[in-house]
Each structure stands twice: as C-alpha cells, then as structure tokens.
C-alpha cells in the first residue's frame, strides 16, 4: 500500500505505543507502524522532500496532533509515550482529533507545521536517518588477535570541578571537535537539574577524555555535562539568554537564579564537587583507542564509527578525508544524497581510502578496524602520494558519473528500475575498481556492455547480491564482491 495520510496514522501510532508498553523511541515506533500497515519497501523509502521519508514526515504530523489532543507526550529527545489519558483510549476518531487541533490553533496550520519541522530536524539528527543510503548489515566478527592488556592505558583521577573549570576557561578541553559537534543538546530544565544535582551533592557520572595531547583534552563521554557546566559557571548563558535555573525539583529557593546570584556557599559547593575522570593516556595504540571509544560511548548521542575514527586520527588523516568528502565531484557522483551531519559522507570516503591503500586481498575483519587502519595510514603518505590518491578518487567519481549517472553505487536489476538507495558495499567496490582503470575512454565507450553485465550479475548471482546485502563485513563477502566487479571491468 502507499503511505497513508497523517490522520490515518493516529491509531497505528497508539497501537505501536501499546505494544511497547506505553513508551518507545521514534525509530521503534516507526518500524512498528510500518509493520502494522504493511508498507512495502519501495513505499518505505518514498521521499517527501529533501531526504526526509514520507512515512517519517507524516508520522511527525500525526504525533503532534495526538500530543495536542492530549494522548501523547514527548518524554525526552526522540522518546514518546502515552499520557494517562492515552492509556485509557484504544482508538480515536480522526475527524474529532483534527477538529480539536484546528480549534486549538484557530486554523493556524503554520504553527503546527513549524513544530513538526522542528521535530523532524531532531529525528534526523538523532536517528541519522538517510533514506537515500541503504542501511548496512555489517555483522561484527571476533578480532583474531586480542589486544594486549598492557596496551590499554587509562588513568583514573579524582578532580574538583574547579580544575575542570580552569581547563574550560583556558580552552584546554576541546568542545568544538568535528566528531562532537552536538554540544548543548539539553534543554534548560535538564541543564538546571544537573546543577541542582551538584548542589544537593548527588554524585556525577564519570567523565572520559582522550589525553593524547595533555594541553587539549578531547571529550569521549560527558559532553552535555561539560557544556552545561560551561554555560552556567563560565559563560553564564545558554545561547543569547542568561542561564537562570528553571524547574528545579528540590531547591525552589534558587529558582530563577544565575550562578552569580547563588549564595557563596553554593558556589563553593559547585567548585569543590569531586568528579571521577578517566584519561586515555598518550601512546595508546589506535586500534585499542578506537575500541575504547566504541565501548565507553554508550549513552546520549552515541558517536558513529566514522566520528570515532576522526577523533583518533586528528591532523592530516582527518583533514584529508574531510577534503575529499567536500569535493563537488563526490557530491555529484552520490547525487547529493549523503548527509554530512554525522560524518556519513566521510565514512564513504574512508572506505575508498582503506580499500585503495590496503587492497581488498589484505582485508581482515572486522570492517571498522580495517577502515580505521586505512585512515591512519594517510599520515604516513608523502604529499605526492596523497595527491595521487586524491587524483584517483576524483577519476573514480568522474568515471562513475560517466558510466552510471544517478544510478551510481546503487542496486539495479533492470534498466527501467527506480533508483534504489546508495549501497555502501557497492560504493567501496566500484569506486576502488574504477580508480584502477587505465583505459578510461574505452570503458566509457563500452558502458552499455558494462551495465548489461552488472544487471546480469545482480539477477543471476545470488552470492554476489548477498555480498552487498548482508554480513557485508565478512571476508568471504568482501572478496566475492570485489572479484566479481573487477571481473566485469577486466572482461570488457
């Protein structure tokens, strides 16, 4: 079936929340609704505008209407639940709900639309929704050579908050790293209650920092807490507004106060609060650090693998990947459809670099570690080798455009197929194979034959299709897809 109108999604949303016991995140809610209304795969990726899926957009409208009607409430970023009234009502009359909302907003639909747009922006940020990129099934594999425990060097320190304030004041904690761009996600209530927790002497969770450069610590876990402390104590503002404590649960006497307005004893209590700090020491190997980042970073806005790779490969590797991701030819080759806000574009570039530099025959699972090693290798390249790598990336992107146009790096079963989402496994395979082509013009002249052979591969080689669809990090499947695509090009 096609995507229903938003008002036809009211009851499926209620059913989904009942299924999850009254509370769930947007992703789970959406998947449950899709199952209930039996939406086809092609309709699931149907686009409303930009890169926002129609189903996601209409569900946002439906949630907002149900919230206004009093059945739903937003509990935190990306998490929704049934209100007390919502628990009592099993279904609604859509016309009644719509009439109530229209009366509430006096038919001012722009106010509703503004709220829905804000919700959609948050969802895209939170869930990293990118329907034009196929979700990757990259099964994790056991690492063959376990880490030497002696290489894991994390120091534990007990610090007073005033020591953290000193580092913040002198920019010795980097709050603006590319991989941690989402500071200040907490609203004023959540920030105020963190300050209240300190004032009533509740212990704070531990903070984790990468101390490779002792002069500038990088935050691994605890960004929102550090941002809150900076806002309240150092800058004493949230954005352009003065930071005044709001919606406190226990210390109502301090409601509406700024840091400067607190009694001296309360300021001292903040300064002298002890925290536990874990610092990843200099010299910790990249592979070990990468896995530490993955394991430590388990709550809040969890870092994506590429954001972790970027964090531990600062300098030339990070800058070079960023440079390639910003090339116009890469954006054209991928139809401007890869989001940049969580470094998904840099993840694609890193795949090309790793398989180009190391070669697919050298691949060993897991994929994340392989990509991290490939990115780290950039710092050992000479300027001329980096320039050659960049030239070949550009050549590959131009050639993919010439051969496939807007169908580049997508699954395709027949010429008249509608465009599928970009497939990561196909990107790394085609991009590296095309970068190594010598007779570019000859291949372009034979592009009809090339496409014909690729369609034949997609329709008649089940193992190849599996190699770009599921457990794509398996060594056998990496070898399979590269050999088949390389075979097509060599044949021509």
In short:
With 492 residues, the chain is α+β, with helices and mostly antiparallel strands.
Topology:
Elements: H1 10-19, E1 23-25, H2 26-36, H3 41-44, E2 47-49, E3 52-53, H4 54-69, E4 72-76, E5 79-82, H5 84-88, H6 94-104, H7 109-127, E6 154-160, H8 161-169, E7 173-174, H9 188-199, E8 207-210, E9 217-221, H10 223-235, E10 237-238, E11 241-242, H11 264-271, E12 274-280, H12 286-296, H13 305-312, H14 316-325, H15 328-333, H16 344-358, H17 367-376, H18 383-404, H19 424-435, H20 440-445, H21 447-460, H22 462-467, H23 475-491
Parallel strand pairs: 7-9, 8-12
Antiparallel strand pairs: 1-5, 2-3, 4-5, 6-12, 8-9, 10-11
Quick one: how many beta strands?
Answer: 12
Tally of helical runs: 23
Q: What is the SS-derived class?
A: alpha+beta
* Content of β-strand: 5-15%
Count of domains: 3
What distance separates the N and C termini? 42 Å
Which structural traits does this protein have?
three-stranded antiparallel sheet, 3 domains, Arc Repressor Mutant, subunit A, 9% strand, 492 residues, alpha+beta, 23 helices
What does this structure look like?
The protein is 52% helix and 9% strand. The chain has 492 residues and is an alpha+beta fold. It has three domains: 6-127, Arc Repressor Mutant, subunit A, CATH 1.10.10; 153-283, no CATH class; 306-491, no CATH class. Strands 6-12-8-9-7 form a five-stranded mixed beta sheet. A three-stranded antiparallel beta sheet has the order 1-5-4. Strands 2-3 form a two-stranded antiparallel sheet. Helix 4 (54-69) crosses helix 6 and helix 19 packs across helix 23. The protein starts with 9 loop residues before the first helix and ends with a helix.
